[in-house]
Amino acid sequence: MRKLQVQGVHHITITGADRRTSIDFWEGVLGMPFLFEQPNLDNPDEGHLYFDPGDGRLITVFTNEGRKADTRPPPARPGHVHHLAFAVSRSTFAQAVERLDERGIAHSGPKDRGFMDSIYFREPLGLLIELACYRFEPPAGASHADVLHEAHRIRVERQDRAIGDTHLVDAIERLVEHGRSSLSSDRAPRNPYA
User: Fold this and answer.
1) What value does the mean pLDDT take over residues 10-30?
2) Number of domains present in the structure of the chain
3) N- or C-end of the chain: fewer Cβ atoms within 10 A?
């Protein structure tokens, strides 16, 4: 038995209502360029809209002009999507409350997640959307996932409840120490002011 190794998210497809609602939200609120559209090749009664969330991957929406927006949250049952999270810059996150308030979009307010900050709100069809901003930048050659994996290991070693700033800083230090060569035989912390 062998795995089918994935290499990232290719796209996420959402069942939408009408075309205009989809464009107004995904491009008009979240700023995702509307790249192209074509018929849903499995259902000729639906359109298929493609948006770029900022990393070159795709968010796609099936539309039907006969479907009306239903703002009730989708059921929270096993196998159903709880929410979609999109990365934003620290600057964008700092403006999120103001910009959501300008539009009258109800939201959670900023949430401290230890290794990131988040804010939640619902899109016009009730799907929960999260805007997330990491509190760190990974060192060159490492990913956010690498830092979080190492921070988790440190958190478990220390028997802490959740990842916080100290775990992130120490994880980044470990990744640099193990991932970068040095002419020093001893790379222990020093005090040059003593």
Assistant:
1) 96
2) 3
3) N
C-alpha–C-alpha distance, residues 159 and 39, integer Å: 52
**Does 97 lie in the same domain as 129?**
yes
C-alpha distance from residue 135 to each of 53, 119, 182 (Å): 20, 14, 27
**Residues counted in the chain:** 194
Does residue 75 belong to any structural domain of this protein?
no
Q: Which domain holds residue 118?
A: 82-135
- Cβ atoms of 135 and 165 within 8 Å: the answer is yes
Q: Which two tokens stand for residue 97?
A: 């409350």
Asked if residue 192 belongs to a domain, the reply is no
Q: Which of 166, 173, 107, 108 is nearest to 135 (CA)?
A: 166
For the whole model, what pTM was predicted?
0.91
pLDDT digits (tens, 9 = 90+) for 37-85: 999 999 999 999 999 999 999 999 999 999 988 888 888 899 889 999 9
Task: Report the C-alpha gap between 174 and 166 in whole angstroms.
Answer: 12
